[in-house]
């Protein structure tokens, strides 16, 4: 079984996700105690997709979030660098006219400048070897005035919540993954990557440094997850 490490070598991470693809959605629902659905709803609401919009769903995995966005009338490009995830996604959602799947590297997106009305990434930025480069690429492919929405694991604001969450990650989740996951070792990486990931304010600063404006975030489930939003500015008038 493949387990990536925090060097986040793209081929290694991709292979790890290939191995968990078949049971990925079921495992996430169990490990999140059903909160995965609530986080997805919050992400789609923050994205505010409109009929006719073209949305990039980066690190889309099996396309579950892409399908939710498409239900609002938008056309969605579900991009992921794991062929295994894309294969599962195409089986589940390939019949949807407004969802298409593309294999892509988040740091070198195969799309034109200003191509999308908005971009989003859920629980994927943490797995990118150069996350700030991905934020810059997402800015490049988003039209001026367009929005980015990031849903990612973060740092609980309350110390008691942090303690309880650490206990869950370190003691409870390893037991669960042995039962429900096709690759329990990969969830050791999940634990490591969550602990290594920066807090809400740091990610907000990365967005500003990448060129995004109107950067805001709000905590979900006490800060276990944070929802970041920002806007691509219009070019300065000459």
Helix content: 40-55%
> What is the total tally of β strands?
7
- Our count of domains comes out at 1
CATH superfamily: Vaccinia Virus protein VP39
* CATH topology category name: Rossmann fold
| Poorly predicted segments | 1-6
Q: Which whole number gives the mean pLDDT?
A: 87
From the 3D coordinates, which CATH architecture would you assign? 3-Layer(aba) Sandwich
CATH class division: Alpha Beta
Helix and strand string, N-terminal first? HHHEHEHEEHEHHHEE
Identify the overall geometry.
Answer: globular
Radius of gyration: 17 Å
Strand order of the largest sheet: 3-2-1-4-5-7-6
Main pleated sheet: 7 strands, mixed
What portion of the residues fall into strands of 2 or more residues? Answer: 15-25%
Helical stretch count?
Answer: 9
Distance between the termini: 56 Å
* Main structural class: alpha/beta
Structure description:
- The protein has 238 residues and is of the alpha/beta class.
- 45% of the residues lie in helices and 21% in strands.
- It is built from 9 helices and 7 strands; from the N terminus they run H-H-H-E-H-E-H-E-E-H-E-H-H-H-E-E.
- The chain starts with 9 loop residues before the first helix and ends in a 7-residue tail after the last strand.
- The relative contact order is 0.16.
- The N terminus is likely disordered.
- It comes from Okibacterium fritillariae.
- Its EC number is 2.1.1.163.
